[in-house]
Amino acid sequence: MRISLFITCYNDTLFPATGQAVVRLLERLGHTVEFDAEQTCCGQMHYNTGYQREAMPLMRRFVDIYKDAEAVCVPSSSCVAMMRDHYPKMAAETGDAGLARRVEELLPRVYELTELLVHRLGMEDVGAYFPHRVTYHASCHSQRSLHLGDLPLRLLRKVRGIDLVDLPNIDRCCGFGGTFAIKMGDVSAAMLGDKMKDVENTGAEVVTAVDTSCLMHIFGGLHRARAGVRMAHIAEILAPTESDAEAEEAGA
Amino acid sequence: MTIRVSEADRAPSFQKAALPLLEDAQLRKNVRHATDVIQRKRGIVVGETSDWQDLRSAGSAIKTHTMRHLDHYLEQFEKACTAAGGQVHWASDADEANRIIVGLVRQYGGTEAIKIKTMTSEEIGLNEALEREGIRAWETDLAEIIVQLGRDRSSHIVVPALHKSRVQVRDIFRERMNLPELSDKPEELTAAARRYLREKFLRVGIGISGANFLVAETGSVCIVESEGNGRMCLTLPRVLISIAGIEKIIPRFQDIEVFLQTLPRSATGERMNPYNSLWTGVHAGDGPEHFHVVLLDNGRTGILADEEARQTLNCIRCGACLNTCPVYRQTSGLAYGSSYSGPIGAIVTPQLLQMQHGQSLPYASSLCGACYEVCPVKINIPEVLIHLRGRVVREQKSALDPEALAMKTAAAIFTSRARFEAAQRLGRIAQWPLVTHGWMRNLPGMLGNWTRVRDLRALPPQTFREWWKQRGKSGTSAGPAAPLRSARRIAEDPSHG
Predict the structure, then answer these.
(1) Rounded distance, CA A74 to CA A4, Å?
(2) CATH code for the domain of B275
(3) Does a structural domain hold residue B77?
């Protein structure tokens, strides 16, 4: 399948390894990945902080770039939530019926990565190998907006070598919340403290999620505490195979 | 018109009010414990129902319909209530409601009143208004007694003393009821409250209540409660005055059926409230001889006029959104500067105050959506919060506000590929004085709020798009396989994020 990657602005700039893992994984599964360099940002930060006017051109931009895509892969549930929850209303508000129609036609072809794998491509075992103790953080948008349920866990359970441990209070927000983490820094820190305790109690080496943004926050706190826990976007766990590990051993 | 919501117009911002609360280990322990217990109970009794989502939809439909025709149903209520022997008063704001109630207490020669827990009376500052006129107001809800005697503020719309532990309650009772020997056993505490209350129930001739529901069709008023103290206030006094926001109306008697299933389950995790009181006007020889209803606007018609935020008025004050909210859980309701706290308070208070006060409240949420998920009338609180943030930005922020400038700059960057790529390159260069061993630990300005408790990885030497471009240049159409941060490096390499 021809899959258009919307990498998201923060993965592009701060976490290129997430995007590289998505490319590696999808190509390994026999698909063609396309990347249109005109893409920038979905507008979520502006929209959710109250700058809805500023988000409008970013919505138009997204629709223009992907209107003919076969499938759009977005490795971030909160960006997909932005599109599904708000783009239709934003488009309607412009009074541009053509735009509203294009949004309506495009959205069913926009997939969060694990949705793409399980729902569109019908896969749970992607042939991955990741021999580490991992705990999965269910981000708020993945649970309550996209209703991913156990999709990510179904994929993770099929990974060879993985020691997957349940994260207690999995339904509770980590305290990131976009600009919330800055504007309400102290409350966000208190929420982060609770989440860090839960992560550390699992004894996991790696905390994963379908959103690098929550991970940036959780791992930022863990790193400050020198907790010895790493972060990895779920794509980074689903991409590597046993032969990658062998190659690494041989090279090392 | 002077709209007031408790002391919200003088309250500090949420982030400021939160600071001392976050330091209060006892309060945080109390709030964690209480919200965990209520949530667990709620989960069980909601799980027992086979039609919970349908009940939510039905509640939402009834309320949404009512708000569209509120004028009609309010007049219908007034007619029916009057026909049954009640008297209806209309109050456009807090002061007018207080004047009406003070006037009624005086009219019946009262110098004191017993009160059922009512958030609306806290909204308008009724107790203070009565005290100013020399009228003593006695709270009778156990939690409200704790708050009143402790000269404290409510921290929860259903469980106002949720932030107090049993030992703290004992200390308040010991001091204020003059019972130095009192223990913290629940039986002893409730017995003390009982003795304190009985004498007032039998002596005081005027009762003041709120209302859970006003039934337009019959003119009835409904109150649900757990202790029975409310029932005492509704039946013993000669005069009963009920104050209710105009949004408390429901059209038909049979509509109560939906809410008596959802409200107790959502509020206290009970299948049914122990006391469900429902009365219509007055009846000779049975209950109060005089019954008055004060219908309060105090900013509600302003909310009704805003189509995108109107659903705010559908709230039935169950408090489920408070218990599930990860922000409320850290601060309690005391940080919201209003009688209405938690996610619902964050949308109610600033709107009642026409966005002139409480502008920090719409930002007191990580938009996690837990509130919407539990709301028994399906108020999409995150959506309303975002809408209100938009109003704060458009109506309050100057163009020179640092946040507004940063957001507009970011928007300009995101609308152009060239500017976006230039910003990525510039960031990589500009960050160098801030980076130590690949990490930023002390960022300036607003971003300093990030690095006070979190490290931030330095911008990597290559963005994803730069890697993609480079990959396209070298070799086959598909390019070489994407590099991997190997499993071992993710798990072991400390320089990697």
Answers:
(1) 9
(2) 3.40.50.10420
(3) yes
- Do the domains A2-120 and A133-243 sit in the same CATH topology, yes or no? yes
Instruction: Give the span between the Cα atoms of A237 and B218, in whole angstroms.
Output: 63
Out of B302, B333, B358, a domain closes at B302
What are the structure tokens assigned to A203, written together? 């004894």
Q: Which residues of B touch A37 (CB under 8 A)?
A: 417, 465, 468-469
Token pair listed for A96: 């541009």
Burial of A55 (0-12, 13-18, 19+ CB in 10 A): buried
Instruction: Tell me the average pLDDT of chain A.
Output: 97
Q: E strands within B124-256?
A: 136-139, 206-209, 213-215, 220-225, 239-245, 249-250
**Tokens coding A175:** 């305290």
Q: Which 3 state secondary structure label does DSSP give B225?
A: strand
At A186-242, the pLDDT tens digits run 999 999 999 999 999 999 999 999 999 999 999 999 999 999 999 999 999 999 999
Q: Are B288 and B239 in contact (CB under 8 A)?
A: yes
Chain B partners of A47 at a C-beta cutoff of 8 Å? 386
How many structural domains is chain B composed of?
2
pLDDT tens digits, A44-95: 999 999 999 999 999 999 999 999 999 999 999 999 999 999 999 999 999 9
Touching check for B37 and chain A: CB below 8 Å? no
- What is the pLDDT averaged over residues B235-247? 97
CATH number among 2.60.40, 1.20.120, 3.40.50, 2.30.30, domain A2-120: 3.40.50
Q: Is the pLDDT of residue B65 over 50?
A: yes
Domain extent at residue B493: 464-497
Q: How far does CA B97 lie from the centroid of its chain?
A: 22
What distance in Å separates residue A6's CA from the closest CA in chain B?
11
State the virtual CA torsion across A39, A45, A51, A53 in degrees, nearest 10: 20
Report how far residue A208's alpha carbon sits from residue A160's, in angstroms, rounded to the nearest whole number.
16
Give domain status of residue B202, yes or no: yes
- Residue B336 domain-assigned? no
pLDDT single digits (tens) B247-289: 999 999 999 999 999 999 999 999 999 999 999 999 999 999 9
What confidence tier does B111 reach under pLDDT thresholds 50, 70, 90? Answer: very high
User: pLDDT digit string (tens) for B427-465?
Assistant: 999 999 999 999 999 999 889 999 999 999 999 999 999
Q: Closest by alpha carbon to B245, among B11, B60, B130, B77?
A: B77
Name the residue ranges covered by the structural domains of chain A: 2-120, 133-243
pLDDT of residue B479: 55
CB-based contacts of B313: which residues, under 8 Å, 6+ apart? Answer: B63, B67, B247, B300, B303, B304
Q: What is the pLDDT of residue B347?
A: 98
From the candidate CATH numbers 3.40.390, 3.90.190, 3.40.50, 3.30.70, the one assigned to the domain spanning A133-243: 3.40.50
B99 found inside a domain = yes
Domain boundary among B251, B267, B302: B302
- pLDDT for residue B493 is more than 60: no
Which residue of A186, A196, A229, A244 is the best one to mutate when testing the B interface, meaning the one whose CB has the most B CBs within 10 A?
Answer: A186
Q: Running DSSP on this structure, what letter comes out for residue A142?
A: I
Q: Which of B313, B348, B343 is nearest to B328 (CA)?
A: B343
CA distance A54 to chain B (A): 6
